[in-house]
Design goal:
three-stranded parallel β-sheet, 29% helix
Length: 145
């Protein structure tokens, strides 16, 4: 069994005032933490899929990935700021401290949340729980939606 350790999320969110779609993951995998960017495992299909959907070439490095996201008005971040985790296993996540997504929601005109429900069901659980806490109250969730 892998050893659990407390890990800080050190990858900055990608967004700007033109972002319209927000993709939220749970917490970076070991490979993403090593590469210092989202969806960093070579077998993760996120970048292949995004390139296909946007009709763009597959981005190679971090700057190309950021450019692809921003050119298509996509913001990306994770819902967890720190946690105890074993390797990359979402099911092992404990002692969660949520990321404050208000800066994204207050800066960008997000009109579509895209949640990777199949690969990261734990992320939605944390978002749903956080929406109903005082520290996450913001105009985006004013109606409890």
């Amino acid at each position: 069994m892998a050893q659990s350790s407390h890990v800080l999320h050190e990858i900055h969110p990608v967004f700007n005032t033109d972002s319209r779609i927000l993709i939220l993951g749970s917490f970076p995998s070991v490979k993403s933490r090593e590469s210092q960017f989202f969806y960093g495992h070579p077998r993760n299909r996120f970048w292949d899929l995004l390139a296909t959907l946007t009709g763009e070439p597959l981005p190679a490095g971090i700057e190309e990935k950021k450019s692809l996201l921003l050119a298509h008005h996509i913001a990306v971040w994770d819902v967890i700021a720190s946690c105890d985790i074993e390797g990359s296993s979402d099911s092992s996540i404990r002692n969660v401290v949520p990321n404050d997504i208000r800066p994204i929601l207050e800066t960008a005109d997000i009109w579509a949340w895209h949640y990777l429900r199949i690969s990261q069901p734990i992320a939605w659980q944390f978002v749903e729980n956080a929406i109903h806490t005082e520290e996450w109250q913001c105009p985006f969730f004013a109606n409890g939606e």
